[in-house]
Amino acid sequence: xPTYSLLIEPEExxxxxxxxxxxxxxxxxxxxxxxxxxxxxxxxDFKDLQLGQKPTPGALPDLAKLSRVFSNLGxxxxxxxxxxxxxxxxxxxxxxWVLDMMGHSHYSYLNGGxxxxxxxxxxxxxxxxxxxxxxYSVSTLNHDFELSKEQIMERIGREDFAxxxxxxxxEYTGEKVISARGGxxxxxxxxxxxxxxxxxxxxxxxxxxxxxxxxxxxxxxxDKEIATHCQTHHRSGFTYLxxxxxxxxxxxxxxxxxxxxxxxxxxxxxxxxx
Length: 274
Prior knowledge:
Layout: E1 7-8, H1 10-16, E2 22-26, H2 30-35, E3 42-43, H3 63-73, E4 80-84, H4 90-102, E5 107-110, H5 113-119, H6 149-155, E6 161-165, H7 169-173, E7 189-190, E8 197-198, E9 204-205, H8 208-217, E10 225-229, H9 235-245, E11 249-252, H10 256-260
Parallel strand pairs: 1-5, 2-3, 2-4, 4-5, 6-7, 6-10, 10-11
Antiparallel strand pairs: 8-9
Helix pairs in contact: 4-9
């Protein structure tokens, strides 16, 4: 069986197509998938991995639904998942977080997703792809990969803790308000997720050495526990993924600003200062 790295390039994946232990999951828009997808890929609607209820719409659904979703996709404990999407890694990164939460550690992210694949001139398929269903059971979650609102409140101000806010700068400063209140969690640093991908290179992640230096300059260093969030833990799927690739101790705050910004007791900071 081939050895797959966490970050895999299109040409490398193309050479592995046909491996029966691969499960390629496309989290792009359905219309994009139907028009062009990686050969053998199955489509997963992002809504299937969201609770969709206030105050934490971005939280996970219950174990029974997770079991159904991944059984329908054909996941087994031996399968190696290739996650990709059509937006540079938000949904695919969130899928990798879900796999972490489920205890399924065999996965890779296709750098740049379908855009990089097509830019490389590789063959695609069209139409729906039927999965070979399995009987996959999610019996428990590994909460080591997430932090709750209460846990973040306890950690604010600690030197071994940092927060990566993946939202736009206007959301971070409070100029753009989506929840009841605008602003950011005290101490959080802001680097919008889309800044971390290269449109000229098929939405591949920016140069990793430069990204490493950037994270260090923001205080998002390897010696810290790092919580990442956005509004509903979609955009922060990308930052969770990049942090993992660069060896950070990443934790997702799935409640995100949808929960924090609607809690009148949660502390907030307005403006650009962390």
